[in-house]
Amino acid sequence: MDAAFTAEQDEIRRTLRELLLRRCGPREVGAAVDSAAGHDPALWETLSRQLGLPGLALPESHGGAGCSVTESALAAEELGRALAPSPFLASAVLSAPLLLALGTGAQRAELLPRIASGELTAALAVPGAALATALGLSGDNRGDWAGGGRAGGVQARRADGGWRLYGEVDQVLDGHSAGLLLVAAHTGGFARSRTLLFLLRDGGTRTRQTALDATRPRARVQLRDVAAELLGDDESAEVARALAAVGDSAAAVLAAEAVGAADRVLERTVEHVGRREQFGRAIGSFQAVKHRLADRYVQVQAARSAAYYAAWATASGGGRAGGLALAQALETLRATAAEAVQLHGGIGFTWEHETHLYFKRAAGDELLFGPVHRLRARAADTAGLFDGGEVAV
To answer: 3-state secondary structure string, the chain?
Structure first.
């Protein structure tokens, strides 16, 4: 692994950080999450049209920049520092790669250039609280997480030469504002039970939900006999394998995003303890406070190394390291944000201060993509750590 970044990669980070410093401060984040879209459409247009953010990892033939997961991870790290609400994760990281992997030529030609330009946003709708399982991060995704043909989840049935969807999906990231939904649905009954992905361009009822982490807006999608289009043209498509591949790359991106958030909240805490005084001196001068922050600094740097390695490994085909890196990054963000709340004192708990948002980001991401112990257990199972043989790498 080459730990040095290219000039182009450094430029992505620098340009994005400068833009977010100008356009995405705490006040702007608060206004964005309170808006109907859950993000600032003007900022998203700038990120899309001027920086090409949603198309970073898409091929040039489909309107993208032809970059790798590494560039997406570096962009996500800067978005995480600012806690910038945007459809980047739902549309560019989770949905676009599935369209690229499973879509027909016509579907890719129609949809991917629009996603790459930011004109169209997409969201992945997975039933229940099964997103981490569907992505292969916290368990085997070849089970019945899409509903299993029983009550709950989403079912797909053939009708009049097309497909109809029935069911309900909670916790769809940016599902209330996305122009396109990729819905995971069960079909085939018990004889030929399988999970397929469907494109939903309109129809159904979408309701924005109250979320622990307001910077990651979510929606409930209700489907009652809604027409949908099969993603791809083969009902035997390897949906589980495609989801697992996307899960590994998404985990690397999410790990980098969590590292960016942890790094920023640590910076803010160091600044605060350098100003806040007790007994006539800054509390940052006390040895106990120094030790606590030094421990968090080491933890952040270790998580950053793991996230960068995961992005490199995913981009180079060097193994599945995303889940383990995500576990370390989420644990680091939670610990660092909790330390920040304590060291900020009473103000760390108030709505007026941004510290609580970082803690909520850590807790919310664990609920969506974790928990940490399951991410690690899945990584251990995948590597064959307890099988008694040689550990896979």
So the answer is: CCCCCCHHHHHHHHHHHHHHHHHCCHHHHHHHHCCCCCCCHHHHHHHHHCCCHHHCCCCHHHCCCCCCHHHHHHHHHHHHHHCCCCCHHHHHHHHHHHHHHHCCHHHHHHHHHHHHHCCCCEEEECCCCCHHHHCCCCCCCCCCCCCCCCCCCEEEEEECCEEEEEEEEEEEECCCCCCEEEEEEEECCCCCCEEEEEEECCCCEEEEECCCCCCCCEEEEEEEEEEEEECCCCCCCCHHHHHHHHHHHHHHHHHHHHHHHHHHHHHHHHHHHHHCEECCEEHHHCHHHHHHHHHHHHHHHHHHHHHHHHHHHHHHCCCCCHHHHHHHHHHHHHHHHHHHHHHCHHHHHCCCCCHHHHHHHHHHHHHHHCCHHHHHHHHHHHHCCCCCCCCCC
Find the farthest-apart pair of alpha carbons in the chain and give their distance in angstroms, rounded. Answer: 79
Task: In whole angstroms, give the CA distance from residue 368 to residue 295.
Answer: 27
pTM (whole model) above 0.90? yes
pLDDT digits (tens, 9 = 90+) for 252-264: 999 999 999 999 9
Angle between helices 322-343 and 287-316 (to 10 degrees): 160
CA atoms within a 13 Å half-sphere pointing along the CA-CB vector of 167: 26
The neighbouring-strand residues paired with 222 are 168, 205
Residue range 128-171, pLDDT digits in tens: 778 999 999 988 887 666 665 455 689 999 988 899 999 999 88
Spatial distance between the Cα atoms of 54 and 95, rounded to a whole number of angstroms: 11
Q: Considering just the CA atoms, what is the radius of gyration of the chain in Å? A: 21
Q: What angle do CA 137, 301, 95 make, to 5 degrees?
A: 35
Which among 221, 253, 235 has a CA at the least distance from the CA of 90? 253
Please say whether the beta carbons of 265 and 340 come within 8 A: yes
